[in-house]
Amino acid sequence: MISFGSSSNNSDALHVTILTCCYLLIGGWALLATFHILGIAYGLYKFHRKPSHSNLKEMPGVSIIKPLTGIDANLYENLKTFFNLQYPRYEILFCVQEHDNELIDIIERLREQYPRVDSQLFVGTQSSAVKLEHEVDEEQEYYDMPLVANPRDEKLRRKQVSLWKRIFCCGSQKFLSGDKLAKNGTVDIKNPKIYNMLPAYEKAQYPFILISDSGLMMHEHTLYDMVTCMTDNVGLVHQMPFTCDRKGFAGSVEKVYFGTQHARMYMTINLIGINCVTGMSCLIRKECIDRVGGLRAFGHYIAEDYYIADEVAKQGWKLRVASTPAQQNSGEYSVSTWIDRMIRWCKLRMRLSPLAYLEPLQECFSSAILAGIVTNYLFEWNALVVAACHILIWFILDYLMLRITQGGPLPFSKFEFAIAWLVREFSSFYIYFKAFTGSSTIKWRGKEYRLGSGTRAEELSTSSLPSPPVPSLLVESPSSSSSSLSSSSLSNSTLPVAGSHLSSLSSTKQSSQLV
User: Fold this and answer.
1) Fewer beta carbons within 10 Å, N or C terminal of the chain?
2) What is the rounded CA–CA span in Å between residue 135 and residue 419?
3) Using an 8 Å Cβ cutoff, are 432 and 359 in contact?
4) Which of 53 and 292 is assigned the larger pLDDT?
């Protein structure tokens, strides 16, 4: 009798445990459905709205920082779109990481073609670490950013971040503010994108800065749209990543990913108010960055976009999504390149939030299998029918999300969408597997890094000593200088200004990579 009672109790406990898991999975299933609905609704409300252009003269100036690391087939056309923006006051600050004659020639041709657009060119080199010296030479004075370490300013507009936001998107490493960096005496800049932008950031003359990756093209009214979103309580406006209409199956796969799963999660999370910012196109109040010591303060991290947005939010400003998605238009793309990029992004998310390890459960096919098992156990429904209906509804909702994000007809047929959608869905499990089981190293902008907690990075270099930092060459636009510089005069003046170390650099071309 005792043995039978013990067996009955164990059976009851197992049944209660299974029921609890089933109801938790049903709750997760309902949450996924809510994400679909909210993503579609917010996309309908937000995307492709047409703002009024009646007060162009009253718009504040914007400094556009373009970090460049190489060239591809679409670079010229992409950069050209930034010279044709319908906006009254803006400047373009080009940052060339290493001396590259062909890349510099592309920039100079555009600057000569559009002399009325204020622009500057900065040519420098990348070092693995930069020391923040208190006493510097006059030749490198502009290279060291002044730190704003006023505790009163630091605490201005700050507010506590709620526990649920910390769980969703905060890493384990705390961000070092400007005063703490000043006390340390040095700042190790591991992020090559941050290092590349430093001279341009210091020379920026307007209160708003737009950080825009090299692989983006921009519609003529996009900048105006982003600035109109920058209301009095907003500190950062960001574009949701999307892609241009590109030829080939790889272009279709990328468009399907960024217009379905990525768009759904990106829009819903931003609607809820959680920090979900991709830094490929961000308009930021410069005062927010100056308050913590400038861009240099974020040089520890590979995911600098997350920490910049986190700092802006901590100061009490709102984060807003622009109504026009970012148009990625890199000239070099393939399915394998996209997969490598997704693995890198997944590794970064793993170090920002523990919830990244649950991401495989929110994919279409994994959630369909779980839905079929749970409903069969609870209601004795046919598991295959439930799973098939789940996949079909998911497929239709993803197609609607993509059409909303596109804002017009798709560049491929419904059949090609279905094939690209299937490739995206099944490849996600390979991406998670490689990210979860692979090493903590990533390759980014031609370099290899080992990720630490909070996306702190350590560069893995074959050289024993880092190369010393070299002063950047500044070339101002014809409209702001007394004499116009031609391409030939630039090539003649580059080497003496930058020094012998720059002249010894090879102009090896790297393909431009997005964040």
Assistant:
1) N
2) 60
3) yes
4) 292
> The sheet that has 241-243: what strands, in order across it?
216-217, 326-328, 241-243
- Our answer to whether residue 305 is catalytic in this structure is yes
Query: Three-state DSSP class for 456?
Result: strand
Chain segment 397-421, per-residue pLDDT in tens: 999 999 999 999 999 999 999 999 9
Residues 6+ apart with CB under 8 A from 374: 22, 25, 26, 29
Q: What is the pLDDT of residue 452?
A: 76
Dist. CA 297–CA 289, nearest whole Å: 9
Backbone dihedral angles phi then psi of residue 98, each to the nearest 5 degrees:
-135, 155
- pLDDT mean across residues, the chain: 80
Residues 6+ apart with CB under 8 A from 12: none
Q: How far apart are CA 307 and CA 489, in angstroms?
A: 40
Domain ranges across the chain:
38-50+59-126+185-459
Please pick, among 72, 144, 305, 398, the residue that the annotation labels catalytic. 305
| pLDDT surpassing 80 at residue 322 | yes
Cα–Cα distance, 261 to 342 (Å, whole number) = 12
**Sign, Cα dihedral of 494, 118, 201, 277:** negative
Which residue shows structure tokens 């406006």? 237
Residues 191, 211: Cα–Cα separation, whole Å: 15
At residue 13, φ and ψ (nearest 5 deg) are -65, -40
Strand partners, 94: 66, 121
Query: Is the pTM here over 0.85, yes or no?
Result: no
Top-confidence range, 379-388, 488-497, 499-508: 379-388
> How many angstroms separate the CA atoms of 280 and 456, rounded?
19
Percent of the chain having pLDDT more than 90? 60
The CATH number of the structural domain formed by 38-50+59-126+185-459 is: 3.90.550.10
Report how far residue 179's alpha carbon sits from residue 249's, in angstroms, rounded to the nearest whole number.
50
Strand 62-68 relative to strand 90-96, pairing: parallel
Nearest to 493 by CA among 162, 133, 123, 140: 123
| Cβ neighbour number for residue 392 with a 10 Å cutoff | 11
For 50-87, the pLDDT digits (tens) are 766 666 668 999 999 999 988 889 999 999 999 999 99
Query: What residues contact residue 418 under an 8 Å CB cut-off, 6+ apart?
Result: 395
- Is residue 328 within 8 Å of residue 243, measured between CB atoms? yes
Give the C-alpha separation, 423 to 336, whole Å.
12
Residue found under tokens 């779109």: 81
The pLDDT, as a whole number, for residue 474 is 56
Q: At what angle do helices 383-406 and 364-379 cross, to 10 degrees?
A: 140
Q: What pairing do the DSSP bridges indicate for beta strands 118-123 and 241-243?
A: unpaired
Coil vs helix vs strand at 223:
helix
Describe the crossing of helices 335-352 and 249-259 by its angle, rounded to 10 degrees. Answer: 30
